[in-house]
Amino acid sequence: xxxxxxxxxxxxxxxxxxxxxxxxxxxxxxxxxxxxxxxxxxxx
Length: 44
Description:
Layout: H1 15-26, H2 33-43
Helix pairs in contact: 1-2
């Protein structure tokens, strides 16, 4: 079976999914998507 992975930078529209994944993998309190958006804007 051939598997192909793709990679891209996160965008502002990914904030909700990033919040869910962060909570799922790291546990604790779910980080608000608005905070993730702030960090993505800062890194751009």
